[in-house]
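Today's session is about reading a structure prediction critically. Students often jump straight to the picture, but the first step is always the sequence itself: look for stretches that repeat, for charged clusters, for runs of hydrophobic residues. Only then move on to the predicted structure, which in these notes is written as discrete structure tokens rather than atom positions. Here is the chain we will use throughout the hour.
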Amino acid sequence: MHAIQTSGNVVRNVTTEAFAGVAADEVYDPRIFAEIIRQWSTINPEFLFLPRKFKIAVSASEEDRAAVRIHDVGLYLFRDSEGELYFKVMVGGGLGRTPFISQTLNEKLPWRDLLTYLEAVLRVFNRYGRRDSKYKARIKILVNTLGIDAFKAEVEQEFQQIPKDINGLTESELSRIASQFLPAVYETLGETDLEFATHLQNNEAFSDWYDLNVRSHKVSGYRSVVISTKFPNNIPGDVTSAQMRGIADIAERFGFGEVRVTHEQNLVLPDIPKSSLFQVWAELNRIGLGLANHALLSDMIVCPGASYCNLATAHSFPVAEQVVNAFTLEEQQDIGPVSMNLSGCINSCAHHHIANIGMLGLNKSKTDHYQITLGGRQGTDSRLGKVLGPAIAESDLPQAIRTLMDVYRKYREVDETFIQAVDRLGLAPFKEALYPEAQG
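Below is the predicted structure for this chain, in token form.
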């Protein structure tokens, strides 16, 4: 961890997903390019006084787990039919008081041109981005004002003017950075493990946890484990010192001593042998972190809210806990995957705009109310949720979420997820159930 360039109008964050390097569906380790960008952008004298802060995300998997499309610049790494690496460049994403999903800037950028192209994007932003208002200074406002075609024309013109030998990437530079991300020394393990299969068959609780909290791995015989830090056992994202020592011990005993943090406020053990999963689950239960709820209702992203943040307009943790406690774990598992995020103010630190169910805390007459949005999603097909109606009082919010779930369970089809049902049904049945007094 470091404090270089934090809080400035600079390239602040370069991020990727928590399963980078081990995900079964990735085409290349995205950490390598994220580190290349970080080294290039840190203390870059040309971009130390941008109109506003700038954030970049990289994904190299079939599934976007890095929230790429809500970043100033998002990069999707892929291979063409001949196996060559390219980037699909997205620009103009961001949430907060004026949310936008990013748009395609370049469909197929050769990896060698990555830094040169990013320099062109930043130069255009630096030149035309507004500096008269911090609320209108992000690149998303510039892209939306100019239109993506006009913005792209400016970037392409700038790109052609930059000598390609200045920032052009080479195989040797790629290899130098890649050497910092060498894979672990894995054992040769098979996928078949009779003891594991016995545990899976005879222990329903372990089976539920495996189905929800364990992810596939690119190396045979290994898995990645998601450790839930959520209600009812923990405040989202909070763990005790004893729990952290327990996690560190598990990571050293069963993995390679590595623990990762997700933007969903969970932890990940990236390299766990399949044969050790039952022991890992037992150890996590011992320290209160074996909850089988990944991607369920209680796996909420929740900002600190008014309990800790002086920007917040409403509380987050207490009301989020009330919402979660309105559902048993069995009910959540029956409902299936639903992303539900709660932000304590318009800044959207909990990404409520792109949740299937988003909740925005507002202060009305000195009491906490929550505006509900429905239909948002994260991923390559990201979209913003739509407001259902007037903000709901804190005391009524748990029942309001139950009402939405009742509508879903009433109308859902076989194997249909919540967001699929919203897409098929539209907002009308949910709105009618939530605001019956407004009908007619």
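Discussion point for the tutorial: The longest helix spans residues 114-128.
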